[in-house]
């Protein structure tokens, strides 16, 4: 039996960005039908040609807008000539969506392909994305994915990866030890053969290097075009078919995008190199974490609202109170997932495209809000809410206990009657808890601190002050230059910056310098939405927000104290509300920042100079934690989800090993650095 030749898997593709320098409307009207027509011509002319085309959402657009063409594709899928590559709903960015969103990408993509064309890929196929979170191999493995491929770590001779290319084909390890086969250097997706790949000297040399290293003689390469879809030129396909039929030193297979992973046997897998770490880009993604900030806010709110609405709907259905509107929930999710495409959520598309994105996200938010309200209302209707006052039912959608400030709006018909000027709040055990209220129109707005059990409904009671005793003092105080509770003292300097945060419990200063807002130069010219330059972030800020300031105490109560600081700089206006809560919610300083941004060619950065000695910072990546060193030109602007932290045990300076630290949490930002 002849010895098997080294094997090169050629993945022919038609890369299409659903939105970029065009909108989803143009994709549906023009690019999708053109891709089908042109590839149908190639499939008729070349009997061994196979096309790989990703993104279940694009298939759905084709099904809805061009049903006759969709039937053509369905027939070609059944023949094995057209492969629905990747298991995802869209060619998603991996750094910004929550872990749940990535799981939903795989869930809904797989279900759609199985339902409509009978089969789909079991790989993650992302030729054109802007770096990759280490959470991906863990999430993909737990979803039954066979492997992953992308060409984005390099572009020809240009190395874009902050960590280099660990291997052309190997094992990528996630934070929990999950091991995912990965192709990380398949060449550009726009490559088109102009010679016989089976005898190509460069590929022969690559396979010799693998043999010398004791690695399996398996490699993948992309052949195709982008970014508007279409089909590979006939001349390139002729070369591919010639290589497939040739008897050169390399066996060339015209493959689907997951075949290399299917063919990998256990012995070969054992000999693959292993990489345990992130795959971030050095420059060509740094802007993606911050561009189009409003869209990122709506997307985060959509993910969180979907989580709450689904849990509320499931509880209501289990209690027999209401049947969940599954179609409403599914369609809301699908609109959110569609705009996680790597040129959409990242903020790199043209303005017109974001009118479609904003409309879809707004619709999803409205639908999810309605589902949540109906589900909570249905559960409330089954409960005995008879009290001596006005019942207030609070739903905690988190799977963990939550100690936080509860904010309440009471419309006039629901507000307690005969109010002498205040309202008292009683917890589920009948104890009065500190609260504060103010008139707002015909109704009331108030807040109080409570600890809520995980995934729970808790019944509180509102009474008029005449039926209540004055609650105990909570230790809150506020002035124009300070806020204080039982745990923290916060001091504001003359520039309007937070100059001091003192932890009274641990007797330590949390800041090494004031927290503030800085305006940096932004000289990113060629790819301003994609790239924030090291040169711009490493030089001193051109403006640090300072006085004159206008400071106003806006809340002074037993549940929360707050002050507002107003400043202007370079034509933009900044309004920051700084607040401290009482009791169990008092271990955080809440900063709400509203900006009327009118400054050109600039970056706005909020700096938190923490005093914690730490050589590495911890960043939330959804699944697991990314540990990253102090910023360098190779890795400086980085992605993270809801928090980043410093812990003293990570460092070697004074205080190291104590475990003390501090974290910065946010509700809509993804771009961070550790200077």
Summarize the structure.
It is built from 13 helices and 37 strands.
Task: Please give a structural write-up.
- The chain contains 13 helices and 37 strands.
- The chain has 675 residues and is an alpha+beta fold.
- Helix 10 (293-318) runs parallel beside helix 12 and helix 11 runs antiparallel to helix 12.
- The longest helix is centred in the middle third of the chain and has 32 residues, at 351-382.
- The chain is globular.
CATH domain fold name of the largest domain = 7-stranded beta/alpha barrel
> Count the strands?
37
The Cα radius of gyration reads 28 Å
Strand line-up of the largest beta sheet: 4-5-9-8-12
> Roughly how much helix do the residues carry, as a percent range?
25-40%
Provide the domain count.
4
Please work out how many helical segments DSSP would assign: 13
Strand content: 25-35%
CATH architecture field of the largest domain: Alpha-Beta Barrel
The averaged pLDDT comes out at 95
Q: Which CATH class of the largest domain is shown?
A: Alpha Beta
